[in-house]
Design goal:
single chain, 215 residues, Glutaredoxin, Glutathione S-transferase Yfyf (Class Pi), Chain A, domain 2, 2 domains, 46% helix
Length: 215
């Protein structure tokens, strides 16, 4: 490792109590990536700081951060970053490894996972009258996963950058669609359920996952 920052901080959305992890897929995406890199010993220990953006902590304000999470601060002399895509790129450029690399990902995996979360948002906000569009997108993912049966995750045997983005959203779909709309992901989507169960057995996902009540 070329650098060993001593003050890496990741600011994420806080839960209702101001201390636990809040329901923010992008916050979990960044935290999951950081956990994978830490477990692989390519990223030093970091601090996770839950932030209520309406009452942001002094450390957050002192860095001049706007009221947006997730945000990353690598330490003295570094500029904080508060755009999720930029955080992911920065973590990979400074601390490469610990995760399937971008060029190993299957373009089809990105294609089939592109629209399911927007369909979910339309459904829970009553833009869509029923779950048919959401379920169609979930079936696309399920079909892809069934056709790549040797993969535990979307692109191979271990989590990739794409999994860090997709799994937090997919988990929120499972929890919120059931809690708000009474919609359950069909049991016959066995590829999708296998994928979710792989996430629930992955420490980096479990440690960064908000509670169902927060979602």
């Amino acid at each position: 490792m070329s650098q060993s920052p001593t003050n890496i901080s990741i600011f994420v959305k806080a839960g209702k109590d101001g201390k636990s992890l809040g329901a923010c897929p992008q916050s979990q995406r960044v935290l999951m990536l950081a956990e994978l890199k830490f477990a692989a010993k390519v990223l030093p220990q970091f601090k996770t700081i839950p932030v209520n953006v309406s009452r942001s902590p002094e450390a957050f304000r002192r860095l001049g951060l706007r009221l947006r999470v997730p945000a990353l601060y690598l330490g003295l002399g570094e500029d904080p970053v508060d755009v999720a895509d930029d955080i992911v790129s920065l973590l990979e450029s400074r601390f490469p490894g610990g995760i399937l690399q971008q060029n190993e990902e299957d373009p089809e995996a990105e294609l089939v996972t592109r629209d399911f979360f927007s369909r979910f948002c339309f459904y829970v906000r009553d833009v869509s009258k029923d779950a048919s569009h959401l379920e169609s997108e979930l079936r696309r993912i399920d079909c892809y996963l069934k056709n790549t049966s040797n993969n535990v995750f979307l692109c191979g045997p271990a989590p990739s950058f794409l999994d860090c983005e997709v799994l937090p959203k997919l988990h929120q779909v499972r929890v919120a669609a059931a809690g708000i709309k009474g919609y359950e992901i069909p049991a016959n989507l066995t590829g999708l359920w296998r994928y979710l169960h792989a996430a629930y057995s992955e420490p980096a996902f479990v440690h960064t996952c908000p509670s169902d009540a927060e979602i």
